[in-house]
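[SOLVED] Need 3D model of a two-part complex

Original post:
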Amino acid sequence: DGGITQSPKYLFRKEGQNVTLSCEQNLNHDAMYWYRQDPGQGLRLIYYSQIVNDFQKGDIAEGYSVSREKKESFPLTVTSAQKNPTAFYLCASSSGTAGYTFGSGTRLTVV
Amino acid sequence: KQEVTQIPAALSVPEGENLVLNCSFTDSAIYNLQWFRQDPGKGLTSLLLIQSSQREQTSGRLNASLDKSSGRSTLYIAASQPGDSATYLCAVRQVNTGKLIFGQGTTLQVKP
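Solution:
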């Protein structure tokens, strides 16, 4: 079945550590997105990529980095510069004016 | 700047009721509007997608309408069931940026 796979489901980060969240899709979608979800704040766009080897900052890109070397993959790195990384992270993809498809999410906690 | 508002923020109804969730947006220059369902701790599941040229979409007990000129959409749930309990999110896709802008959601509880 086509879909988006996010891994891991749960991730724990120590202070000063960089961690990478994985997002893979087999939908042949051109565009991919990363959102952050916090209680009471809704979903906020971190980064998005409309084609391979190109990506743009969203509304809250500080402290995050991405790459888009393959159409199927859009990993997100949460760097030590992100001071409040505890949140639920959602990856999505879309093509043309079709709807978005979301993954099941990764919950990141700072320990 | 596009703003999406969902009313009410929370709703509790007895099983079997028909109910309406509301979504409004400030900029009518949209490609489409999408309704999602989110269960606690889970990702988003797409329920209905309405393109800007369409007025409504239906799937089973769900019906979503779109009035682009007034900046409004409604999600109608017929004969609600306890399994419908979840948070429902409305999102519009911007023409100028292609980005999806979300509302804050309506948390629905259907009591047996």
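Edit: The interface with chain B takes residues 6, 31, 33, 40, 42-43, 45, 48, 50, 58, 88, 90, 92, 94, 97-105, 107 of chain A (CB under 8 Å).
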